[in-house]
Automatic annotation (TrEMBL):
Keywords recorded for this protein, A-Z: Acyltransferase, Transferase
SUPFAM superfamilies: Acyl-CoA N-acyltransferases (Nat)
Membrane-spanning ranges: none
Domain of life: Bacteria
Entry-linked CDD domains: NAT_SF
Species of provenance: Mesobacillus maritimus
Pfam families referenced in this protein's UniProt entry, alphabetically: Acetyltransf_7 (PF13508)
Name of the protein this chain belongs to: GNAT family N-acetyltransferase
InterPro entries, per database record: Acyl_CoA_acyltransferase, GNAT_dom
N-acetyltransferase domain: residues covered: 1-136
Gene3D superfamilies, sorted: 3.40.630.30
Length: 136
């Protein structure tokens, strides 16, 4: 895994990012990472191809929040997402990592060992979940 330099966003990365948000929001969300010193993007490659990424926000030195995470659809279920979460935790010596997600991704976090808290219908027709993991 490597951190994505602020201005070096590969075109195929945009498509991968769209799986974590909408295509209409991709450029806006990437710009938020570029413009913020508290946000970091990491890409995961297989055979020199970007197949996954994780975007995090620094809450404190020992607590990060996952803002975006995605793996190419045909490679999901192969522990790439778990490897990315583990990488971020180890690289930054975290004691706590969290995320907010929807029904589509909550099982990924639950399987990893996150405590899942149902937040209810935060947006009309969309249930949200707070996922928290104590590292170590």
């Amino acid at each position: 895994m490597r951190e994505i330099p602020s201005k070096d966003v590969h075109p195929t990365f945009r498509e991968l990012f769209s799986y974590a948000t909408s295509m209409e929001k991709v450029d806006y969300e990437i710009a938020r990472y570029i413009d913020s010193s508290n946000r970091k993007l990491y890409e995961y490659q297989l055979d020199d191809e970007i197949v996954g990424f994780v975007g995090v926000e620094v809450i404190t030195l020992k607590h990060y929040e996952i803002k975006h995470i995605s793996v190419l659809p045909d490679l999901r279920g192969q522990s790439i997402g778990s490897k990315m979460v583990k990488f971020v935790c180890e690289k930054h010596g975290l004691s706590f990592i969290s995320a907010e997600t929807d029904c589509d991704a909550v099982e990924f976090y639950r399987k990893y060992g996150f405590e899942v808290i149902h937040l209810g219908e935060k947006y009309p027709g969309v249930n949200r979940f707070r996922c928290e993991y104590k590292v170590g």
